[in-house]
Amino acid sequence: MKVLKFGGSSVASSENINKVINIVKESSYKNNIAVVVSALGGITDLLLEAGKLACNGDENYIKSLKTIEDRHLQVVRELIPVNNQSGVLGQIKKMLNKLENTLEGVFLINELSNKTSDKIVSFGELFSSYIIAEAMKNNSLDAELKNSQELIVTNENFSNAAVLFEKTSKNIADFFKQNSHKIVVLPGFVAKTENGEVSTLGRGGSDYTAAIIAAATNASILEIWTDVSGMYTANPNFVSEAFPIKNISYQEAMELSHFGAKVLYPPTIQPVLKKEIPICIKNTFDAKAEGTLITKVSSNTNPIKGISHIENMALITLEGSGMIGIPGISKRLFEALSLEKISVSLITQASSEHSICFAISNNDAEKAKTAIDTEFSYEIEQHKIEPLIVEKNNAIIALVGDNMKSHQGISGKMFSTLGKNNVNIRAIAQGASEKNISAVIAHKDIKKALNTLHSEFFENQTKQLNLFVVGVGNVGGKLLDQIKQQQTYLLKNLRLQVRVIALTNSKKMVFNEDGIDLDNWKPQLEKGEKLNMDLFHEKVTDLNYRNSIFVDNTANENVSKLYADYLKESVAVVTCNKIACSSNYTNYLNLKQLAREYNAPFLFETNVGAGLPIIDTLKNLIASGDKVSKIQAVLSGSLNFVFNNFNEENSFYNVVEQAGIQGYTEPDPRIDLSGVDVMRKILILARESGTRLELDDIKNDSFLPKASLDAVTVPEFLETLKTETAHFNNIYQKAAANNCRLKFVAEFDNGTAKVGLKEIASDHPFYNLDGSDNIVLFFTERYPVQPLIIKGAGAGADVTASGLFADIIRIGNN
Ligand code: ADP
Ligand code: ASP
Ligand code: MG
Asked: Single Gene Ontology BP term (predicted)?
C-alpha cells in the first residue's frame, strides 16, 4: 500500500482537487492507496480566526464563517455533477450548522479553550476529506471516506496532542485489514482522545497523520504532495537559487524541518523512520518533477544538504557571577521553561559558566522572563544573577548535513562568509552529532545570510553585485550602457552578476528587486516615484542585499554627504564625485575608516584622471612599501583642452564654450577654470600618498583676471571671458614668444601642494599632451629620477564611466 498526503494548496480549489484526483487515479492502478488530505488552503487560518473573533465577542466571526461556507459550497458545485450535488451539499450544510453552533457557544460565553478550538479547527479537514472522497466516487474511483478520528488516539494536550501509538497503530492496522476499497480518503491533522474528545496534532499535522498511517500499515512509500518540487536547499521564497535536494537522510530531513523547512512537519519522520519507509516529497502542480526522496542513508555525499531558518526567535541570556561553579542552575532554568511548556531551539553555554544563552519563540519571551525571574528571584535580589535579558526579533539559521562531521572547516567557512557580509552572529550552537551548525542572527539579516551561505555552499560561486545608481546624466547614462553591454561577459568570464537595483535622476527614482532591465531603463525611471534620498536609503537598507554598491555619478555635494550612511550599512560606495574626498580631512579619514570597519569598499578612482588607473597605482605603490616624494601632474582634461585649442584665431571664450559642449568641463565651468578642480585632485593624491592636507593649504596662482574671479553667476563669468580677451591673448602670446605651451600644472612636493598655469618648454614630458589628456609623474623612493608616468585621456563621460565600472568590478573581484 502507498500513502499519499495532499497539503492545503493542493486541495485549495476544484481545479487543484482535479489534479489530485488524476494523481491518485494514476497511482491506484497498481496500488491500494490511503489518501490523507489537509483542509482547503487557508481554511484552517479562517477557522482559528473565527474562533478568536467569537471569543472576543466580535460578530465578524459570522463573516469568516460565511467565507468558509462559500468556499466549500463552491468547490462542491464545481466538482460534483448536478444530479448528485444535493446530498453532498446537504451533508456539508449539516456540518456547517454544527460548526456554527460551536462558534455561537464561544461567542456567548466569551471563552475559547484549546479543546473547543480543536473542535472548531477540525472541521477544515472533515469538510475537505468528505468532499474529495465524494468527488473521487463521482469520478468512478473505488474510494471510501474514513474519519481518522476513529483511528488516531491522543492524549489531552489539545492543539498539539501526542499520539498514543499502541492503540492508534492497532486501530489503523485493523481497519485496513478489513478494508475492501482501493482508495481510502482520510482527514489529516484530526484525532480524538481516549474519552472521545476532538484533538489535533499541531499546525502542519496532516503530514504526521499520513506518516502514522504509513507506519501502521507498513506502506511501501509515503508521498507528501505539496506546492513545491521537493525539499529545497533553502526556503525557495527567500533564496531564488535554491533547488530541490534529490536524496536526503531521515536525520537530515528532520534537522531541516525542525529548523524551519515547513515543507515537512518535523514529527513526520519519526513513525516511518523506525520501519524505514521512504518518504517522497512531490509537487501536485508539476507531478513529473522528481521531488525529494528521504531514506535512511542518502546517496548524496555533499557534506551540507540544506540551510534552514526559523524566524521570530528571542535570544535569552541568563548571566551572573553567582552562576559559576554552582551545580543545578541549568536544571532549574530548563525546568522552569519546561513547566511553562516553552520549547528551546538552541542553547549555548560558555565554559566560564558565567552565562547561559538560548533561543525560544518570540511569543514565549514574556512567559519565559516571568518564569525564570521568579525561579531565580533570590539570586537576583542578592545580585548574584542578573534579571533575564530578552532580545526579540532574531532568527536562527542552520546548516544541515550528516557528513559535516567528516569535513573540516565548514563552520569556519560559514562564519567567515557571514562576517564578510556583515551579518552579526549573536550565538552559535553545534550539536555533538555535528549534523547541524546553527547561529542566531538579527531578523533583518535573514535574506542576506541565507543567500550568502547558499551561494558559498551550493552555487557555482557566481558573485552578485547589486548597484544603486544615483545620477543618469552624461556619465551615469554611459555607465548603464557599458554595464548592459558587459553583463553576459562578466557572468561568463568573471562569474560576476551585475544587477542595477535602483536608479535616480534629479527628480525620480525607481527600484526593481530583480534588477532593472537596462534595455529600457529610461521609461522605467520616468514611471518611477518622486526622488527622496531618505526613502532611497531606507529601501537600500531594507533590501539588505549582499554586495550592495551605492554608485554616485553626480557632482552634487548633498549626495556626497550620504556616503557615511551607506558605508555604515556595509554598502560599498563608488563615486566620480570629488567633493567627499576633497572635503575636510576628518571627513575623508572618517569615510576611509568606516569602509574598513564595515568591510564596505569606498572607491573613487575617477576622482583623478577619469578612467586612468592613477589612484589604484598609487595605492599599490604605498601598499608595497614605496614612499611618494613628489607628484607633478596635468590633471585637468578641461584646462588641457582649453589651452591646447586656444590661440590667436580661436578665442578663449570660444574654446571654453566648446569644452562645455563636449562635456569636458564640470557643469559649472568656474570649478575648472579657477583651478579648484585641479586643487581637489592634487589634494586627493596628496592624501592618498599619506599626507594630511586641507584644500586651503594648496597654493593656487590663478590665471583668471580679477573681473572673472569676481563674477557671481555662471553667465556673468562667461561674459568676462569675452570682455577680458586681451588678458588671455597676452598670456598666450608670452608663452608662444618663449616657444612654450601653456599647461595648468599641479605639484605636490615634500608635503606641500600648489597649482598654476605654467609655460612648458618642448623638452618637458608635459609639452606634447594632446586633447584632454592627463599626465601624472610619480617620484618615489623606487622611482627617484625617472618617474612612474601615467598618461592618457583624462576627461569625458565614456572614460569616466569606464573608471567607475572598473571600481565596481574591483569590488566584484575582491
Ligand atoms: P502543504 O500545505 O502542502 O503542507 P506547506 O505550506 O506546509 O505545504 O509547505 C510547503 C511550503 O514550505 C513551500 O511552499 C515553501 O514555501 C515552504 N518551505 C520552507 N522551506 C522549504 C524548503 N527548504 N524546501 C521546500 N519548501 C520550503
Ligand atoms: N490544516 C492544518 C494546518 O493548516 C494541518 C495541515 O494542513 O497539515 O495546519
Ligand atoms: Mg504542510
From this structure: methionine biosynthetic process
Classify residue 247 as left (phi > 0), alpha (psi -120 to 50) or beta. beta
| Percent of the chain with pLDDT strictly greater than 90 | 87
Choose which residue among 13, 209, 235, 239 to substitute to test ligand 1 binding: the one with the highest number of ligand atoms within 8 A of its C-beta. 235
Distance, CA of 332 to CA of 305 (rounded, Å): 36
Centroid of ligand 3 to alpha carbon of 6 (angstroms): 9
Answer for the pair 548, 463: CB distance below 8 angstroms, yes or no. no
Q: In what order do the strands lie in the sheet with 198-200?
A: 153-154, 190-193, 198-200
Distance (Å) from CA 43 to ligand 2 centroid: 9
In the Cβ-directed half-sphere of 663, how many Cα atoms lie within 13 Å?
14
Q: Which residue carries 608595497 as its cell?
A: 624
User: For ligand 2, which residues put their CB under 6 angstroms from it?
Assistant: 7-8, 38-39, 44, 124, 188-189, 203-207
Residue closest by Cα to atom 1 of ligand 1: 7
Task: Please give the backbone phi and psi of residue 63, each rounded to the nearest 5 degrees, phi first.
Answer: -65, -45
Ligand approaching nearest to the C-alpha of 257: 1
Ligand 1 contact, 257 CB (< 6 A): no
Q: What are the catalytic residues? A: 681
Query: Residue 262 C-alpha to ligand 1 middle, in angstroms?
Result: 5
3-state secondary structure 358-384: EEEEHHHHHHHHHHHHHHCHHHHHCCC
Per-domain residue ranges for the chain? 2-42+123-226, 306-457, 463-604, 614-795
- Cβ atoms of 24 and 140 within 8 Å: the answer is no
In CATH, what number does 614-795 get?
3.30.360.10
Domain boundaries 463-604, CATH class: alpha beta
Pocket probe for ligand 1: among 262, 268, 292, the residue whose CB has the most ligand atoms within 8 Å is 262
Give just the sign of the alpha carbon dihedral 452, 458, 463, 469.
Answer: negative
Closest of 587, 602, 599, 585 to residue 690, by C-alpha = 585
| Better-scored residue on pLDDT, 63 or 460 | 63
24 residue type, one letter? V
**Would you tell me how many other CB atoms lie within 10 Å of the CB of residue 430?**
18
Q: Architecture of domain 306-457 in CATH?
A: 2-Layer Sandwich (3.30)
Cα 754 from Cα 433, distance rounded (Å): 68
Instruction: Write the residue with the smallest CA distance to atom 9 of ligand 1.
Output: 263
pLDDT, greater one: 747 or 813 = 747
Q: Is the pLDDT of residue 460 over 80?
A: no
Phi, psi dihedrals of residue 376, rounded to the nearest 5°: -105, 25
177: amino acid identity, one letter:
K
Statement: the pTM of the whole predicted model exceeds 0.90: no
| CATH number attached to the domain at 2-42+123-226 | 3.40.1160.10
Model confidence at 770, in pLDDT bands (50, 70, 90)? Answer: confident
Minimum-distance ligand 2 atom for the alpha carbon of 208:
8
d(CA 133, CA 411): 50
The whole-number pLDDT of residue 340 equals 93
Question: 205 near 213, Cβ under 8 Å?
Answer: no
> Given CA atoms 210, 215, 219, 223 in this order, what sign does their dihedral have?
positive
Spatial separation of the C-alpha atoms in residues 441 and 427, rounded to whole Å: 8
